[in-house]
Amino acid sequence: MVTSVLFYGIEAWGYLKLKDHIELVHTSFLRQYLKVRKSTPLIALYGETGRLPLSYIGTLRILRYWSKLISLPENRYVKVAYKDAYELYQTKPNYSPWCSFIFEALSQISMSGHFTFQTLPNPNDFYTMARCRLFENYKNEWKTEIIDFSSLDSYVKFKPTHGLEEYLSIVKDKRHLIALSRFRLRSHNLAIESGRHRNVQRDMRFCVFCDSNQIEDEKHFLLYCSFYDELRIPLIPLISELTEEDAFVLLLHSTAPHIVKLVAKFVYQAFKKRPNLA
Ligand SMILES: [Zn+2]
To answer: pTM (2 decimals)?
Structure first.
């Protein structure tokens, strides 16, 4: 419903930079859905929910409209108008921004030949292929770009690919669900994150709840901190035979409902046990 309002007429105006503004509505919704802070990187919001920036969906809609347009009979008014724009594009591309947009969009998915020759053997096949390539492009970009976010260094260990997380539908207790989302996306107050906001050097962000002298990051919180030993008991049989890395990944990457629920419950209870240090 909201998307159809945001996208109204996008086939005509979607090539403008204006379309970036609709993304603010989208990301604000995703933040509310996951109940995470404003500072949570957008790339993590997209990754966790399996969503793409709306600009990708908008581009796809424009390409679908273009495929219908060039398949129309030559005497249709809209086709005549398009032919004018295309002729202008051939001599002065900058004066025909809509056509330039179509060419650029198709070039990025290695399908510009259709624009060059203005032919489409089958509009449905074209749409399916364009959709598939556009989405693949984004998923590959996501994988490359997320590595550059130092605040997501733990996240990339248990979230290797873009896609809707199953825990979002498995965990039914809202409190547990919110705790798990916040924990995964570093929208929490562990020292690794709160220290970042207070400009504490990364290797000085120690845990104050135990005497281990370890950095309080997600791994320490989930696997080691003695302050939560009692709460961690249900998790121990799952990880006792595993290495540190494997245990961490298993607990946060698993889609087995009983594991997901146990982890969500642990995170909720452990967050709750922490005194408010603010
Ligand atoms: Zn600790």
So the answer is: 0.84
